[in-house]
Amino acid sequence: MERKTLPGLSINAFISETDRKALDGLQKVPLLPQVVKKFYEIGADRWLYCWNMGMSVRCGPRQYAKLYGILRESCAILDVPEPELYVTNNPFPNAFAGGVERPYITLRSSIVDTLDDEQLYHLIGHELGHIKAGHILYLSVARILAPLLEMLGRRTFGLGDVASIGLMVAFAEWSRQAEITADRAGLLVAQDLNISIGANLALCAGPSRMRDELNQEAFMDQARAYQEMGWQDQMGKMFLFLFGSWTATHPMPVHRAQQLERWYQSGAFDRILRGDYEREKTAQAS
Fold it and tell me: Residue 3: which pLDDT band, with cuts at 50, 70 and 90?
């Protein structure tokens, strides 16, 4: 499949409004500057990087060349500098981006097995979206938020003070909304809604010997039904949120699939592929 590149693509072309609002809310939490300062003081970014390098295999022309090729092509599409790419052994499918000073993407071995080559374009594009959107600092802080709060003498979880709980809630809400933006980046790289929805479906269902029986249309029917539930079921979803989901860092998979479909149907995706999108100021000047 020949994919279009998007030179000078600005994050403003595809960032979700909910991501903007949640980030604004997070940045208004008074405790945030202290936590970020402590993150830098202890050198957390560097030791997270070293841990990842020590536990993973770095991809390149001589190591996982196919994955490295997908990364390079995805970077060209989104017009983002090439981060390091790693694969680590883990039976639970997932991937993440890290490295404030030295960005990297790590794929768990099980996610490479779960997705086909085309779906890996969506996955890597998703992680590149986090990097391009400037999500990495706060994603990295969130990864070790509880220890950082303890270093500041703040109590967390059931014994937490109001400021700590407020910061944790704000981080979780922003993280969920950042995933919506990153999913859009994944679609811009995959350049086929069926590929992106297929990737979401595969991740939701997990590895299975019956994967050939997965049906994307049925999955999207399920996603639409979830979004359009009656008021009683909506109350049920609210109670689920209050009793635990508020700490989740990712939206529910069916919600993500529906949000991505809605963005696609809005026409924004097609406009971007036609070249009608906001560009970075440096690209406009050149």
Answer: very high
* Main-chain phi, psi angles of 86, to 5 degrees: -130, 155
Domain ranges of the chain: 11-278
The token pair at 225 is 């039904």
Nearest to 190 by CA among 264, 114, 124, 272: 124
pLDDT digits (tens, 9 = 90+) for 45-77: 999 999 999 999 999 999 999 999 999 999 999
3-state DSSP percent of the chain in helix, strand and coil, to 5: 65, 5, 30
Cβ atoms within 10 Å, residue 262 = 12
- What is the layout of strands, in order, in the sheet containing 95-98? 57-58, 84-88, 104-108, 95-98
Please state the φ and ψ torsions of residue 104, each to the nearest 5 degrees. Answer: -150, 160
Angle at 83 between CA 37 and CA 110, to 5 degrees: 100
Rounded to two decimals, the pTM is: 0.91
Model confidence pLDDT, tens digit, residues 218-276: 999 998 888 776 545 555 555 455 455 556 778 888 989 999 999 999 999 999 999 99
Token pair recorded at residue 263:
């963005």
d(CA 239, CA 173): 16
Q: Residue 28: count other Cβ atoms within 10 Å of its Cβ.
A: 9
Gap between the terminal Cα atoms of the chain: 30
Strand duo 95-98 + 104-108: pairing: antiparallel
Q: Are 42 and 152 in contact (CB under 8 A)?
A: no
Q: How far is CA 204 from the centre of its chain?
A: 15
Q: Do residues 103 and 91 make contact, with C-beta atoms less than 8 angstroms apart?
A: no
